[in-house]
Write a structure and sequence with these properties.
heterodimer, A: alpha+beta, 4 domains, six-stranded antiparallel beta sheet, five-stranded antiparallel beta sheet, 28 strands, B: alpha+beta, f41 fragment of flagellin, N-terminal domain, four-stranded antiparallel beta sheet, 10 helices, flat
Chain lengths: 671, 624
């Protein structure tokens, strides 16, 4: 009997002391990150034989742990996206780095030359502001591209961190397996592994699968690409993009193969960075490129329709958007393409107002077939949707020319024309990345460096006969200075013409060629003499290179002559036309600045959205963290109470032993 | 709920951090006075702010333009004022010069004064602005507008360009006037110039000699007639009425082809010397024009097609780029169907899913920017329209006969006598057989001839049947002839010329110099006295006309200045309004922000106090 009591007392003593040790462990680890509280589970021994500590349990709710991982992936995604998009938002909207102010300044400065086109200081000032505009485009492009470099470095750092964590998980899997085999408790190893997995989930969304009742845990990303399987970890590597070599991509090395996973990482810190790069940064670079192209092209077109201070036709104000070096840079073959490299690869911008700020992918999808995918919206343009023509010269938007045997393709969509030649024909599945707008801001440059070369006047001088009786007003719009009308002679109009109104009802006019002023001849542009053409106010007369419009009501006998604007230094008509471009809708979004506004608005609302998402996912994460902590965290008061509880238990058990001794002594003494 | 001790601390810290972050944000609002520090803080309002700021900068731009324009116009106004004063003086001395009591010396000294005034006016007209640009040169700002020529008269070297400056989003204002507009406004004597009709290679004006106005009264009569009837340039036409004996008739038309003077027969009068003609004050002498300079009226037709014209160049060029030359084949004259065949593909062109189209006799058909005027095509007719871009020099006349001329006047005289007067002759080409056939006006065949000597065909000289002999004395110049091509020749030839009558434009300086010259000439006879009086009257008219123009311009300038003033104040108002809106949108309401700041501070203090209380609560403190 007393042995039984002694036995029970000893067991109770042990049990209480073990529990005290667990309480001690809990108190000791109250501030340890990733520590889950433990409790000792007691069991009664059979037949009134006392108590035993059956196990020391880690208190973890696996459901909450999973939710915590998911929430922290989401939170970190939003966190990174909000962080970077807010930077982009600041860069684009800032007066010192954005385009809006620079474009404003450019046009304000242009007003000075509109007001006073003969002033060389004004012209120089305008040239300087033109330079400043070009620098702004270049700098903005540079800033955005350096963000890509920052992201590349981030990718490298993060993948290093991932590799440390996956290795840790694999090693812990091995240790836990061993401990499990030996039957040694391994609660702390489990805690460490959980913690490593949670860190991984901050970086990207992962799925965890338990084997052998949770002894080992395997980790997968995306569509089941394994990062950790049992005791093996697969390495995550970064590599230069294909074919965008300046942008890093992420892949996982499994055995000797590499699996590209960039597009599969949709959440976590890394997901946030990738999403930011693909959905905000790259489109922004394309968009400012496109604005650069539109501005350069439309300004050039107008500037070339003018005459400069020396009476010559205007040259290029900005550099030609279809410069040979630009043509080649716009198309990149995929590195995995088979066959020879293209012998010719050009992308011409044919109609800048139609060009979208997107990358395109040209793919030879099957034998004698190709398709072009617009990446901004995923729209696929199939060969069958385009018209085939028989001469590459005839390719216009929406048509193509192809010679499959020699490997020549000319195709035009969305305002750009791609010319590709591959010796020996095109290979199946070969892909080409087309970036029509990407380099528009980088390559934006000023071509004119002498103030007198700014072409501010119109090349056509209008003279209204002093004896005109009517109130007709003639206007000229220059359409194309490459027509023979302007190019046959230098600084002259071929031919100079006179529009004379005749006394008919309705009023009619005749256009005379006055090359010989003493012998005017009705002008013939190859469609018969322009004689007795009936007139309505506002009628336009196409003069092959320029258009005459006569408004109001001229009277019979009224004359207007049109000649080359020699010495027209004070003429500001072309400068006015250039200045008017500021308010013209030149892209589907509107004016230059409205296009930029749309970009800033898009970025700022994406940023605002990211911020809202961040605070939502933050709240979500906090609530999960609280729930998780509520189950697994150590509460000091609770531990203090348990300390008292087990101390008392211990004292009572000691009393049992003492009672057993007393009983035994009594028995001995009674003998 | 169970609370973990670690969490308790972490949450307390988080709450305090949130309070502090809100505080920082509010502090920033107070410091900058703006509600937002970056667009994403409120994308909607930010985009409005951007637009309003742009509007403001645009308004400032316009405001600056208004000021620049005002300065220019005010300078112009001042100079014009001075010129007007000089003109007043000019008018005074001109009136004084009319005093019959003055002798030659008196007049000479007045002439000297006039020359002085002219010098000073020329100086004013050559005014430059601060930047060294001549203000009255139109667009030729670097050209001195008035320079003296060898005769001592002033030539205008500028043009009539006018600079417009933008002072509102859709409003431009002229920032000056050219000397052409202001000073070249005195109408001088009427000038007559003659031009032959460009279609005739002869000089029809050779028939008109000595065109003139006999007196000022005749000049006025003609001027009034021209103005009243709005004739424009006159067309003079002389025709062979009868070839043997040679007789002519003439008529006069206005610029629209309306007959002002019906055909007037001259009979054989021209052969005995010039005939004087007076038309509404305009006098000229008619002489017989060289016969070979006369022109035949021809109307050409090819296979039912009468004319081709271009209606839309851009469309025509892109159409031609795709299809090249287009052949119109009339496939069925019962169903009235035709097709268009492309020279590029050699196939009928498909427009809107069909290759066969319908036409109406004497109607028009149009395709790709080209309009074709039809006659009465028959099945099998075909006609090719060359593409405008492949060879823009090609004359797209329907017939390829480019000219009809007389090569043998004697032969032609014989031939035309045989033809009824006013008659016509048809030439129908059959390129397949290498022949052509001549028909008279009644459709009677005059014979079939070989088409051997292209491109110059002497009509009627190479008969297929030797028995026929109809030598017309006419020669055709041709290009490549089209089979079935038909040419109608109006047998009596004629010549046309244009008579342009326009007042000569003079500037006020030359008007004054003309007067000075007359004043410097001694008056010795009554004729010279009359000339002097005429000159004085002309000068006074000129001065009046010039002053009238200056007055009009000054009024226009005044109203321009008023407009600018209005725009300026409207811009100011709009600027103020925009600024107010902008301020409402983006400026922080300080009262509100500071109240919030107070609240946030209180919250932070409360959090801190609570943290102090909570952390002191621990069971361990109570276990002894």
């Amino acid at each position: 009997m007393s042995f039984g009591l002694l036995n029970i007392g000893t067991q109770a003593l042990n049990a209480n002391s073990s529990s005290l040790a667990v309480v001690g462990q809990n108190i000791a680890n109250v501030n340890t990150e990733g520590y889950n509280r433990q409790t000792a589970n007691w069991a009664t021994r059979e037949g009134g034989n006392g108590v035993v500590v059956s196990s020391v349990e880690r208190i973890v709710d696996q459901f909450l742990a999973k939710q915590l991982r998911g929430d922290s992936s989401t939170y970190n995604f939003d966190d990174q996206k909000a962080l970077y998009s807010s930077q982009l938002d600041n860069i684009l909207a800032s007066a010192s780095s954005g385009l809006d102010g620079a474009i404003d300044k450019f046009f304000t400065s242009m007003q000075n030359i509109v007001d006073d086109p003969t002033s060389i200081p004004n012209r120089n000032l305008f040239l300087e502001d033109t330079e400043a505009l070009a620098r702004r485009f270049n700098t903005l492009d540079d800033t955005l591209n350096s963000q890509i470099d920052v992201l590349n470095n981030q990718f490298s750092d993060i993948s290093d961190k991932v590799n440390v964590l996956t290795k840790q998980v694999a090693q812990l899997n091995e240790k836990i397996q061993l401990a499990d085999a030996k039957g040694t408790p391994a609660n702390e190893l489990y805690d460490q592994r959980d913690q490593a997995i949670k860190s991984l989930s901050e970086i990207m969304e992962i799925s965890v699968s338990s084997n052998n009742g949770g002894v080992t845990e395997s980790i997968f990303i995306g569509s089941g690409v394994p990062l950790v399987v049992g005791i093996d970890a697969n390495e995550m590597v970064v590599s230069t993009g294909n074919p965008r070599i300046n942008q890093y991509e992420i892949s996982v090395r499994i055995g000797n193969n590499s699996v590209e996973v960039t597009d599969q990482i949709k959440s976590g810190q890394l997901g946030g960075l990738i999403d930011y790069r693909d959905s905000m940064l790259n489109p922004a670079i394309n968009e400012i490129g496109r604005i650069g192209l539109v501005l350069a092209e439309t300004m050039n077109a107008q500037h070339q329709k003018g005459v400069d201070l020396n009476g010559n036709l205007g040259g290029e104000l900005f550099n030609d958007i279809n410069d040979p070096s630009a043509l080649r840079a716009r198309i990149l073959p995929n590195h995995e393409n088979k066959g020879p490299t293209p012998s010719k690869q050009y992308v011409y911008i044919t109609d800048i107002t139609q060009v979208e700020a997107s990358d395109y992918n040209l793919k030879f999808t099957s034998i004698r077939d190709f398709s072009i995918t617009r990446e901004s919206d995923g729209q696929v343009i199939k060969m069958s949707q385009l018209t085939q023509v028989t001469d590459p010269q005839d390719v216009t938007d929406g048509s193509y020319y192809v010679d499959w045997s020699t490997g020549e393709l000319t195709v035009s969509v969305d305002g750009f024309r791609t010319e590709l030649e591959v010796d020996g024909g095109f290979r199946l599945n070969n892909e080409y990345l087309i970036q029509p707008a990407r380099y528009g801001a980088r390559d934006f440059d000023v071509q004119i460096n002498a103030a007198d070369q700014l072409a501010l006047g119109s090349p056509v001088r209008i003279t209204e006969n002093a004896n005109n009786q009517g109130n007709g007003i003639a206007l000229v719009e220059v359409d194309d200075v490459t027509r023979p009308t302007f190019t046959t002679g230098t600084q002259q109009l071929t031919p100079p013409v006179e529009v004379v109104f005749n006394n008919t009802d309705p009023l009619s006019y005749t256009v005379y060629d006055i090359s010989d002023p003493d012998n005017p001849v009705p002008h013939d542009q190859g469609y018969g003499p322009m004689k007795d053409i009936s007139f309505t106010a506002g009628d336009s007369i196409d003069m092959d290179g320029y258009t005459i419009t006569i408004n109001n009501q001229p009277k019979p006998g009224d004359r207007f002559t049109f000649d080359y604007n020699s010495d027209g230094v004070s003429d500001n008509r072309n400068a006015l036309a250039m200045s008017n471009l500021q308010s013209q809708k030149l892209t589907p979004q509107g004016t230059y600045q409205q296009s930029y506004d749309v970009l800033v608005e898009t970025v700022s609302s994406q940023t605002a959205n990211a911020k809202v998402n961040l605070s939502a996912s933050d709240a979500m994460l906090q609530s999960t963290v609280n729930q998780f902590a509520s189950v697994s965290g150590v509460n000091m008061d609770e531990e203090a109470a348990k300390l008292v509880q087990f101390q008392q238990g211990y004292q009572a058990a000691a009393q049992l032993i003492s009672a057993s001794q007393t009983i035994f002594d009594s028995l001995l003494n009674s003998l | 709920m169970r609370i973990s001790t670690q969490q308790q601390y972490a949450n307390a810290v988080r709450n305090m951090q949130r309070n502090q972050s809100n505080l920082a944000d509010l502090q920033n609002q107070v410091a900058t006075g703006k509600k937002f520090s970056q667009p994403s803080d409120n994308p909607l309002v930010s985009s409005q702010v951007v637009k309003l700021n742009r509007e403001l900068s645009e308004l400032e731009k316009y405001q600056n333009n208004v000021e620049v324009t005002q300065r220019r116009i005010e300078l112009e106004e001042t100079v014009l004022g001075d010129i007007n004063t000089a003109m007043d003086r000019l008018r005074e001395v001109t009136i004084r010069a009319g005093d019959a009591a003055l002798n030659d010396n008196n007049r000479a000294s007045i002439a000297a004064e006039i020359r002085q005034i002219v010098d000073s006016m020329a100086g004013l007209m050559n005014t430059k602005d601060a930047a060294g640009e001549y203000i009255f040169s139109g667009n030729k700002g670097f050209q001195q507008p008035y320079t003296q020529n060898a005769l001592g008269r002033y030539d205008y070297n500028g043009d009539d360009g006018q600079r417009h400056i933008q002072v509102g989003s859709t409003l431009t204002v002229p920032a000056g006037d050219s000397g052409f507009e202001l000073f070249e406004s005195v109408a001088g004597a009427l000038q007559i110039s003659l031009n032959s009709d460009p279609n005739s290679d002869g000089q029809a004006e050779l028939a008109i000699q000595n065109a003139r106005f006999a007196s000022t009264a005749a000049e006025t009569q003609f001027k009034d007639y021209q103005k009243l009837n709005q004739t424009g340039d006159l067309q003079f036409e002389i025709s062979v009425e009868q070839a043997d004996p040679l007789s002519y008739s003439y008529r006069i038309l206005d610029s629209g082809g309306n007959e002002l003077q019906a055909a007037q027969s001259l009979g054989g009068a021209l052969s005995s010397g010039p005939v004087a003609v007076n038309f509404q004050g305009l006098q000229f002498d008619l002489v017989a024009p060289p016969l070979d300079s006369l022109e035949f009226e021809t109307s050409a037709e090819v296979s039912g097609v009468q004319a081709v014209s271009l209606t839309d160049r851009t469309a025509a060029e892109s159409f031609a780029k795709q299809y090249g030359d287009v052949t119109i084949n009339f496939t069925d004259d019962l169903l009235k169907e035709y097709e268009l065949v492309s020279s590029v593909t050699g196939l009928p062109i498909d427009i809107g899913g069909t290759t066969t189209f319908n036409y109406v006799d004497n109607g028009t058909i149009s395709y790709g920017g080209i309009e074709v005027q039809l006659g009465t095509p028959v099945t099998g007719d075909s006609f090719t329209v060359q593409a405008p871009t492949t060879n823009p020099e090609i004359t797209r006349q329907v017939s390829n006969v480019t000219d009809v001329e007389i090569v043998d006047t004697a032969q032609f005289a014989t031939f035309s006598t045989a033809m009824p007067v006013g008659g016509k002759m048809d030439v129908v080409f059959d390129t397949g057989a290498g022949t052509y056939e001549l028909f008279d006006d009644g459709g009677v065949s005059l014979g079939t001839f070989n088409l051997s000597a292209l491109p110059d065909v002497n009509l009627g000289t190479d008969p297929v049947l030797p028995s026929v002999a109809v030598d017309t004395g006419l020669k055709l110049e041709t290009g490549t002839l089209v089979d079935g091509e038909r040419l109608t020749i109006n047998v009596p030839p004629r010549a046309q010329s244009t008579i342009k009558v326009e007042p000569e434009q003079k500037n006020i300086l030359d008007v004054a110099l003309d007067l000075a010259e007359v004043l410097e000439t001694p008056v010795l006879s009554q004729t010279q006295r009359n000339e002097l009086n005429d000159a004085l009257a002309t000068a006074l008219d000129g001065i009046d006309e010039a002053q009238e123009r200056i007055t009009q311009s000054t009024a226009a300038i005044g109203s321009r200045l008023n407009t600018l003033e209005d725009i300026k104040s409207a811009n100011e108002d709009f600027k103020l309004y925009t600024k107010t809106t902008l301020s409402n949108l983006e400026d922080a309401d300080l009262t509100e922000v500071i109240t919030e700041l107070q609240l946030e501070q209180t919250l932070l203090q409360a959090s801190q106090t609570v943290f102090g209380k909570v952390q002191s609560l621990s069971l361990f403190d109570h276990i002894r």
